[in-house]
Design a protein that fits this description.
Helices cover about 50% and strands about 0% of the residues. It is mainly α. A two-stranded parallel sheet has the order 1-2. The radius of gyration is 20 Å and the shape is elongated.
Length: about 180
């Protein structure tokens, strides 16, 4: 492809990446160039709301690091700039600078009526579970008991099936749980 101008090659790569993203919105970027193109296409990762799967889209991030970031944010510590993100990961800003085109830093008020504090049911205490509106106390206890005997919940469907929850209650809990 040496005969194509840089502009044409860029447009061709942009078109290819757009097609990949259309097929798979959680496509894992393979290079800095793909991240740059994704940024131009409007792809954004909201640092303070990103899931493990969203973090894993970035090249060079491990699943352990992705889980750590989600846990930090879910504990109430916001990441407000790339320096905060680097510190949370224990790396230099230079190392994660290539991610910048797709990172979106925003601050959400902890007491916002639009945002529930999300907890991981695999680590939640009974007290935390009892703070969830309309969660029967016996279900809160059952969540912990089943977790201790059957291991961690993989996702909401796993929790629903293992506890034999009513679909409406499982739907309600989606707003409060993050795995």
């Amino acid at each position: 492809m040496g005969w194509l101008s840089d502009d044409w090659q860029w447009l061709l790569e942009k078109k290819r990446l757009a097609a990949k993203l259309k097929k798979n919105p959680y496509y894992r970027f393979q290079s800095e160039r793909e991240i740059e193109i994704a940024g131009e296409l409007g792809v954004k990762i909201d640092v303070n709301r990103a899931t493990v799967d969203e973090w894993l889209r970035l090249p060079g991030i491990s699943i352990i690091q992705a889980k750590k970031l989600v846990e930090i944010v879910n504990s109430g510590i916001p990441l407000l700039c790339i320096e905060d993100l680097a510190a949370a990961l224990g790396v230099s800003v230079f190392q994660i600078q290539p991610w910048r085109p797709v990172l979106y830093f925003s601050y959400y008020l902890p007491d916002s009526c639009y945002e529930n504090e999300r907890i991981n049911p695999n680590y939640a205490t009974l007290n935390q579970l009892q703070q969830i509106p309309n969660l029967p106390p016996e279900i809160a206890t059952k969540i912990i008991r089943e977790r201790e005997t059957g291991g961690e919940y993989r996702h909401m469907g796993d929790l629903k099936n293992r506890l034999d929850l009513d679909p409406q209650l499982a739907y309600h809990l989606l707003r409060y749980f993050q795995f």
